[in-house]
């Protein structure tokens, strides 16, 4: 008897589960069909009219810092809270971030921003998920092919962190959509666009509006994740996209730098491939989703744009939390250069002080001082002037000298100067520098203090 009741209960439960699953799937399919209707018409609309905002499940909650009071949210973000501290994580959770471009880079960046607890996200892209994009997209599946990338991410995001206010727009960024996309005082804008015209317009608008922006350069045709860096746009090298963006920003908008970018020091491993139609003909204009956009194909190893996106998310989250991360500077010296600088220091010490016995550093520590502390340039240079081969050549006019002449040439008492700057520096006292150049004095002492902390001095 008991066995019969047990079997009946099991059978009933299985039947109820099947019925519930059936209706749930029908509901999800109907929602997706409604969304796809909007998404699949987008390219045609964008050629002459405008995009659309995603309908369906909507979250109108205003972003706030009280999300962490929710037990489930607090538990979901417990590792972040342990890392940043509660108050810093509140800053993250109370932030609003806009991600423009939701391909291989943008989808990974947006996903980790969400998982890190960003309270409000705006996702913007005019394009749809394609089969060929599945090798690098963060969340898309074959079932998502043909659906807008913005909607694909939004649906996934609301299942991961439903408390986040996720808005999605199927839009092409340009002057007509600038206000709609950049209004609302976002705490950060992520530029994950690969079209030069659109990229330049977005970056210039962010600078004009005083918005913090982080830009991704070319991630295609690369394979070495160890060469990915973040630095000012002026320092990005070996990247045709950032080189073109630099030129256009300077020429059209008078912007020299001040924009952080994620880029790779690696030279591209492959060239753009031409797009060919089904019958082998090559007529790019026939296949452009948006007039003026390239249709040639960039060979992409999916792991690299994913790491670009993760890099961007990490940078933004730590910035929002108020945690300063000292990224590795872009310095193109090799060990021969560091040996040369070490030898110059020894010879200079012998010339000025009559002995080199107070040189308390080796070549490895020279590398730390030159690369980590002074970023391969004179302590008197506030901004980057030489990059790439220019920096490689600049070592010919640099040398290490004591900051305080009364103390040994130690790791926390050496600055990098150009030859022509050395005599003037050594003819002055620190009191003179402090009185007449307080900003320079404070900047140098702060850098040398960092060396003391790094080496426990």
Automatic annotation (TrEMBL):
It is found in: Mitochondrion membrane; Mitochondrion outer membrane. It holds the Pfam family ThiF. GO terms for cellular component: mitochondrial outer membrane; plastid. Its main location: mitochondrion. The chain crosses the membrane at residues 6-25. SUPFAM superfamilies: Activating enzymes of the ubiquitin-like proteins. InterPro entries: ThiF/MoeB/HesA, ThiF_NAD_FAD-bd, Ubiquitin-activating_enz. One of its GO terms (molecular function) is ubiquitin-like modifier activating enzyme activity. It is a multi-pass membrane protein. GO terms for biological process: cyclic threonylcarbamoyladenosine biosynthetic process. Keywords: ATP-binding, Ligase, Membrane, Mitochondrion, Mitochondrion outer membrane, Nucleotide-binding, Transmembrane, Transmembrane helix. The keyword Cytoplasm does not apply. Residues 78-339 form the THIF-type NAD/FAD binding fold domain. Catalyzes the ATP-dependent dehydration of threonylcarbamoyladenosine at position 37 (t(6)A37) to form cyclic t(6)A37 (ct(6)A37) in tRNAs that read codons beginning with adenine. PANTHER family: TRNA THREONYLCARBAMOYLADENOSINE DEHYDRATASE, TRNA THREONYLCARBAMOYLADENOSINE DEHYDRATASE 1-RELATED. Belongs to the HesA/MoeB/ThiF family. This is THIF-type NAD/FAD binding fold domain-containing protein. The gene is Vigan.03G096500.
